[in-house]
Amino acid sequence: MRSIGQTIKNCREMQNMTQHELAQKVRVGLSTIEKYESGEQVPSRETILKLSTVLDIPASELLDQTFHTHSSTID
User: Fold this and answer.
1) Is the pTM for the entire model greater than 0.85?
2) Nearest to 65 by CA among 7, 21, 11, 20
3) Long-range Cβ pairs for the range 29-38 (8 Å, 24+)
4) Is 49 exposed, middle or buried (0-12, 13-18, 19+ CB in 10 A)?
5) What CATH topology corresponds to 4-74?
6) pLDDT tens, 19-60?
7) Where are the domains of the chain?
8) Residue 63: pLDDT band with limits 50, 70, 90
9) More confident residue, 10 or 63
10) N or C: which end of the chain has fewer CB within 10 A?
11) At a CB cut-off of 8 Å and minimum separation 6, what does 33 contact?
């Protein structure tokens, strides 16, 4: 299973968008996008909705991965 960070990165690259451009569109810092993509940080639900709009993917795809990421860290 792909992580949320991998999905964000893959979708961003498919749209030929830089991390800086994505950060501006989602209104977060560049380092925040870097942390999402590397798996160091998980976006909030509000940010997931913004990411899904900008990246043109269903929010449910990101939310499902967020849930699995948190579940695996709890075990």
Assistant:
1) no
2) 7
3) 33/8, 36/4, 36/5, 36/8, 37/5, 37/6, 37/8, 37/9, 37/12, 38/5
4) middle
5) 434 Repressor (Amino-terminal Domain) (1.10.260)
6) 999 999 999 999 999 999 999 999 999 999 999 999 999 998
7) 4-74
8) confident
9) 10
10) C
11) 8, 19, 22, 23, 26
CB 54 within 8 A of CB 30: no
Any idea which residue has 């925040």 for tokens? Answer: 32
Q: How many residues does the chain have?
A: 75
